[in-house]
Each structure stands twice: as C-alpha cells, then as structure tokens.
Amino acid sequence: FRGSWVVEANTDTQLSFATQSLQPVDVMRVPAVQDYTPRHRLVAAFAYGSGEHELTVTAARHASSPLAALVVSQLRLTSVLSEDGNSRHEALLSLSHSGEQFAHVRLPSGAQLLSAIVNGSAVKPVRGENGTIALPLPGGSANMDTVSARVLYELSGEPWRSTGKRKLEPITLLGDAPILATHWTVHAPEGFSYEK
C-alpha cells in the first residue's frame, strides 16, 4: 500500500463511508503521523495503493442530550403516624452527582424540617420558597459511587378518630434528578391499621 486515510470525529457526529479501491484498516493499527495528535476519536482508517481511489464521507451531526447532574439511586421513606394527628417522616437518599453543590429537595406542604445529615455529618440546609431546601453536598464527592442524605421532618394534622383518611406525600427533588427506586414504610398509630 502507498498511503492511508485516517478519519476522526467528535462524539456527536455520525459518519458513513463509500469507498473505491480502498482497504479498511483497524484504527488501533494506524501508523503514527509525525507532529500530529488526533483531537477527537479515530473512527475509520483506509489504506490505498498506487491506483485511482475515492473516499466519500457523509456526516450527520446529532443534537446532544442533556444528562442529569444528580441521580438518586434509592429513596427510602419511613413515616410514623401518631393518634394526635402529628407524623414524623425520615427520608434516606442514596445519590450520586457530577459536581453539584446542593441537592434541592421539596418537603411536603406544611412540613417542619427537624434535621438534615449528609454523609453522616449534620448540615445546615439553605431554605428556599414553597418548602424547598438545598442540602449542601460534601466537597470532593462528585462522581463518588454514593452520597447519603437523611432528612427528618414533621407534619401536623387532625387527630385520628375511629376511621379517617390521610394523604401522604413524599419529598421530591427539583430539576431533572431521577429517582430510580423508592421504598416507603408507614407505621399507623397504635390500634390502627391502613389500606394502600
């Protein structure tokens, strides 16, 4: 073979090739070119001989998709309901993030925050509007497998009679943070039971 064509492309470009008198070459075996370092990934390589040859490249550029900067792999909720109508709730979050300073959480309407712990240390959340709080995430925790957060809050309500209904709402995360799994345990007041 007399020479070679090496094609590189950025990650959002899809290339297709039409060739004439070219031999495909494994991009891992492409000879180094003096004083040249690829800026993007190598996607194709072709060798050619002394005869006439042709390479036609067709490119399609795709729009990039935004990725969630924070993902909750598991949300575990425990709710303890009292006969006087008050209830205490614990939310345990296992999350990972790519460099966020805060995890933005919305508490149910009327909730009173009792404590917040991140990776075993008490934190002072920043309060926002409409029951939102911002839990500070530890420095250096970006791209760690798991950051744990524990939020304890209280809600007041009407005392229970012999029967009644109570709507329970979970905490929610603001933005595009997905929650991959949720487990919720509810403890009814003594002498009461509940249906889902």
Description of the structure:
By secondary structure, this protein is mainly β. Helices cover 0% and strands 48% of the residues. The chain has a six-stranded mixed β-sheet, with no helix packed on it. A four-stranded antiparallel β-sheet has the order 11-12-8-14, with no helix packed on it.
- Helix and strand content put the structural class at mainly beta
Strand content: over 45%
How much helix, percentage-wise, in residues? under 10%
Kindly state the number of beta strands. 15
Q: Provide a count of the helices.
A: 0
Radius of gyration (Å): 28 Å
Return the string of H and E elements. Answer: EEEEEEEEEEEEEEE
Output the strand order for the largest sheet: 10-9-13-7-6-15
Bulk shape: elongated
Whole-Å distance between the termini? 73 Å
List the uncertain runs: none
Whole-number mean pLDDT: 88
Largest sheet: 6 strands, mixed
What would you say about this model in short?
This protein has 196 residues and is mainly β.
